[in-house]
């Protein structure tokens, strides 16, 4: 970690670290396994969350990867500007994928991450596409979690409806049960504890009220998208991943990433591996079921020639 980053020790298996973006905004990340023996010979794993989510979504996966007895890895989970413990941006137009990619590069530089395997959930997967176009040399491998070059309008509409229906919950437990009622049919693999974790990752109780851990302006920007017009695709950026070991994860019940898109991705990237998360929608929790094993296996074999 460089002098541009600051850290605070926690008892939760990670160091809470902070760094400064190019425009002076104070941004946050979680750093798991830093300095642990055995991690020095393996690429760091960098985790990128969804639109309104934060690094806390990867907590259990990060513990599994960083505390592995066989192949421990350093894992860094970022909070984008306006999310988690990162500062909110007064200029709301700065909540865009290009600036968030720039913030990611600043964070990696501050934390001394020069080469890494990147895991991106939803918006994080889109940021990986941009990173592949502008800095492919720093990518040891990539895992796209339920997002690819084509984003389905139906999936975005579902995300907007989700945020409209979770306003003003009375408690975190009430919020967790509301999330379960809304999305339980798409996420049959989740337990009540998982729903509680989802609620606590992006909301907190302050002064007797439940507050979101993200700038509400993010939702307003989402509503400004015209879902009646075709959404732009990222196929040119996806080409930048062609020579990078790639795993694409799709939730079995996802409305954002279709099987047809994953099939087309496989045609353009023949070495791509794919995994369907049973009993999950958009976006799969990566510590559920066989996902940690699949992710660990992929990371350990990234760069090795595949058997024919």
Strand runs, count: 11
The residue ranges in which pLDDT falls below 50 over 5 or more consecutive positions are: none
Radius of gyration: 18 Å
Shape estimate: globular
CATH-level-4 superfamily name: Alpha/Beta hydrolase fold, catalytic domain
Please tell me the total number of domains: 1
> Kindly state the mean pLDDT as a whole number?
92
CATH class: Alpha Beta
Order of helices and strands: EEEEHEHEHEHHHEEHHEHEH
Strand content: 15-25%
Give me the CATH fold name. Answer: Rossmann fold
Number of helix segments? Answer: 10
Biggest beta-sheet profile: 9 strands, mixed
The secondary structure category is alpha/beta
What does it look like?
- It is a single chain.
- With 308 residues, this protein is α/β, with parallel strands linked by helices.
- It has a single domain (5-150, 229-301), classed as Alpha/Beta hydrolase fold, catalytic domain (Rossmann fold, 3-Layer(aba) Sandwich).
- The protein is 33% helix and 19% strand.
- The strands form two sheets. The chain has a nine-stranded mixed β-sheet, with helices on both faces. The chain has a two-stranded antiparallel ribbon with strand order 8-9.
- The longest helix is centred in the middle third of the chain and has 14 residues, at 97-110.
């Amino acid at each position: 970690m460089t002098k541009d980053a600051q850290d605070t020790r926690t008892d939760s298996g990670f160091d809470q670290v902070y760094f400064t973006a190019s425009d002076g905004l104070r941004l946050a990340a979680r750093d798991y396994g830093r300095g642990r023996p055995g991690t020095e010979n393996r690429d760091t794993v960098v985790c990128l969350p969804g639109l309104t989510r934060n690094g806390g979504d990867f907590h259990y996966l990060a513990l599994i990867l960083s505390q592995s007895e066989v192949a421990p890895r350093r894992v860094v989970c970022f909070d984008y500007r306006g999310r988690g413990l990162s500062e909110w941006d007064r200029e709301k137009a700065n909540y865009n994928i290009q600036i968030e990619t720039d913030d990611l590069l600043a964070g990696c530089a501050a934390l001394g991450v020069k080469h890494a395997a990147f895991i991106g959930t939803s918006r994080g997967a889109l940021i990986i596409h941009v990173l592949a176009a502008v800095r492919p040399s720093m990518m040891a491998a990539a895992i796209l979690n339920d997002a690819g070059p084509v984003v389905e309008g139906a999936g975005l509409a579902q995300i907007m409806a989700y945020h409209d229906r979770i306003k003003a919950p009375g408690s975190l437990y009430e919020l967790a049960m509301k999330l379960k009622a809304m999305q339980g049919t798409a996420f049959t693999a989740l337990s009540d504890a998982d729903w509680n974790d989802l609620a606590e990752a992006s909301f907190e109780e302050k002064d007797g009220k439940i507050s979101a851990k993200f700038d509400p302006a993010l939702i307003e920007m989402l509503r400004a998208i015209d879902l009646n017009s075709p959404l732009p695709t990222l196929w040119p950026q996806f080409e930048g991943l062609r020579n990078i070991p790639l795993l694409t994860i799709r939730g079995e019940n996802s409305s954002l990433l279709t099987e047809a898109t994953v099939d087309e991705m496989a045609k353009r990237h023949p070495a791509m591996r794919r995994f369907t998360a049973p009993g999950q929608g958009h976006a799969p929790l990566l510590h559920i079921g066989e996902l940690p094993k699949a992710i660990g296996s992929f990371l350990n074999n990234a760069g090795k020639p595949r058997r024919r």
